[in-house]
Write a structure and sequence with these properties.
The protein is α/β, with parallel strands linked by helices. About 35% of the residues lie in helices and about 20% in strands. It folds into three domains: about 120 residues, Methylthiotransferase, N-terminal domain (Rossmann fold, 3-Layer(aba) Sandwich); about 250 residues, tm_1862 like domain (pyruvate-formate lyase- activating enzyme); about 70 residues, OB fold (Dihydrolipoamide Acetyltransferase, E2P). The protein has 16 helices and 22 strands. The protein has a six-stranded parallel beta sheet, with helices on both faces. Strands 18-19-20-22-21 form a five-stranded mixed beta barrel. It has a three-stranded parallel beta sheet with strand order 7-10-14. A hairpin with a 3-residue loop joins strand 21 and strand 22. The longest helix has 25 residues. The structure holds S-adenosyl-L-homocysteine (SAH), iron/sulfur cluster (SF4) and FE3-S4 cluster (F3S). The site of FE3-S4 cluster has 13 residues, from helix 1 and helix 6.
Length: about 475
């Protein structure tokens, strides 16, 4: 392994936040073994692509990227190319057969093996490890923050998914669900706060089923003994533990599953000002027959009940959604049910897709992908247009109100403006004046678009910022 030490590693991530968080774990594992991460692809000795399989076009994008990389490899024969993440797990050694330039294939649970696999490649072999694990949570590894703004960070609280939604490849690429030791989660949040970070987002495919009891991760609360139940930490408790790291550390989480989100979580959010009033609550469809076919285990009424409960307990809660258009056998009427659910729910924003059949999933095995592509696309357009209308009008209602924004970075459009997000996770832009990155600023909203709020700072937020401190008193 000696000759590869101190070499430069370039990591590129695709897909969901969990993948981006995993890349930071990978960077940490590699750093321990003498590899430095670089933002310069051209100077890298190793290129890792952390991949996503969620839809066919996600994989297509990565294939195109690999074609580009072929050129680099021709110029630098020693360049090592590794495929990490969900596509590596899904395609396994097939990926090496199909993409000759790939030297390493590593699934999401095998990252501790990376230094060893790189050494094998260095000795002239190809290397693969796609073993999934029932225990691995990388619990004690401190991620190396990549491309960080120094203000916001992700913390993985669990891995895998046991839900088996019929359209979804994730249970196959990420394995069984397992929760991470809560003490390591709180420790990571504390270390981030001590390093100047102001916001953490707790990540899991289904955070509401997080569960840790005295002895370790276990899935089902009802299967625990009474004593274990008393000692267990569920998501509501975990959320409060992280919120208590500091009232000045904002806490977010994603993703919530409508079947699992509890009143306890909503009350924890209402109790703590630093837990953001924002929930990502994917519905996928607004029609009960389709939801059943998707194996989401709730129906339209249940979903609406959850939205009502959220609005009751947290009146100003932002809610966003994921929608899939044109799932197997979806009729025009059923599509209209999705539109009416969206209209009724008034989501602040949504992530919207048309159905893409994934090999090996329940839907691929059992149902015909029978909604023609042009119909899927047309339904998706209707869904997007409706959401844009709702977002525009919801944002418009915020004109004249004051929102608290955590300053994350310079606005992409102007170096005179700051960009941050309000509690409800909506991008907010305002002139910098004397404000600084990492501060909580109260902003009076003057103008809005479909995707953002634009306004003017009226001062530091008194709850989050100690405005009586002398150097801040001027603000
Ligand atoms: N765990 C999250 C979702 C993770 S995947 C949840 O349960 O909500 C992110 C989103 O991708 C999903 O919410 C879904 O809307 C979309 N998606 C997943 N599989 C898909 C497929 N086969 N075709 C189209 N969209 C899909
Ligand atoms: Fe996929 Fe469903 Fe698990 Fe989300 S909850 S990751 S959609 S199987
Ligand atoms: Fe994609 Fe894997 Fe995330 S399939 S969405 S990167 S869990």
């Amino acid at each position: 392994m000696g000759k590869i030490k101190n070499k430069q590693l370039y990591i590129e991530s695709y897909g969901c936040a969990m993948n981006f968080a995993d890349s930071e774990v990978v960077a940490s594992i590699m750093a321990e073994n003498g590899y430095t991460t670089t933002n310069e692809e051209s100077s890298a000795d190793i290129v890792f692509i952390n991949t996503c399989s969620i839809r066919d076009n996600a994989e297509q994008k990565i294939r195109n990227r690999l074609t580009q990389l072929r050129g680099n490899k021709k110029r630098n024969n020693d360049l090592i190319v590794g495929i990490l993440g969900c596509m590596a797990e899904r395609l396994k050694d097939k990926l090496m057969e199909e993409e000759k330039l790939v030297d390493i294939v590593v699934g999401p649970d095998a990252y501790r093996d990376l230094p060893h696999l790189v050494a094998e490649v260095d000795d002239g072999a190809k290397a693969i490890n796609v073993l999934l694990s029932l225990e691995e949570t990388y619990a004690e590894i401190t991620p190396t923050r990549l491309n960080s703004n120094g203000v916001t960070a992700f913390i993985s609280i669990m891995r895998g998914c046991d839900n088996m939604c019929s359209f979804c490849v994730v249970p196959f690429t990420r394995g069984r669900e397992r929760s991470r030791d809560p003490h390591t989660i709180v420790k990571e949040a504390q270390e981030l706060f001590d390093a100047g970070y102001k916001e953490v987002t707790l990540l899991g495919q289904n955070v509401d089923s997080y569960l840790w009891y005295g002895g370790g991760p276990k899935k089902e609360f009802k299967k625990l003994t009474e004593e274990e139940q008393a000692n267990s930490i569920d998501f509501a408790k975990l959320l409060e533990m992280v919120a208590q790291v500091s009232p000045k550390l904002r806490v977010r989480f994603s993703t919530s599953h409508p079947k699992d989100i509890t009143d306890d979580v909503l009350y924890a959010m209402a109790r703590h000002q630093n837990i953001c009033n924002y929930i990502h609550l994917p519905a996928q469809s607004g029609n009960s027959r389709i939801l059943e076919k998707m194996n989401r285990t709730y129906d339209r009424e249940w979903y609406m009940g959850k939205v009502e409960r959220i609005r009751e307990i947290i009146p100003d809660c932002g809610i966003s959604c994921d929608i899939i258009a044109g799932f197997c056998t979806e009729t025009e009427e059923e599509h209209k049910d999705t539109l009416s659910l969206m209209e009724w729910s008034q989501f602040d924003f949504s992530y919207m897709y048309y159905y893409s059949e994934r090999p090996g999933t329940l839907a691929a095995r059992k149902f015909a992908d029978d909604v023609p592509l042009d119909v899927k696309k047309r339904r998706l357009t209707e869904i997007i247009e409706l959401q844009n209308e709702v977002s525009r009008s919801k944002n418009k209602e915020r004109e004249g109100t004051v929102v608290t924004v955590l300053v994350e970075a310079e606005s992409k459009r102007s170096d005179q403006d700051w960009m941050g997000k309000c509690d409800q996770h909506i991008v907010t832009i305002f002139p910098k004046e004397h404000y600084q990155k990492g501060q909580y600023v109260d902003v009076l909203i003057e103008r809005t678009t479909t995707t953002s709020l634009i306004g003017k700072a009226i001062g530091l937020n008194p709850f989050f910022e100690d405005v009586t401190e002398p150097e801040k008193a001027l603000a």
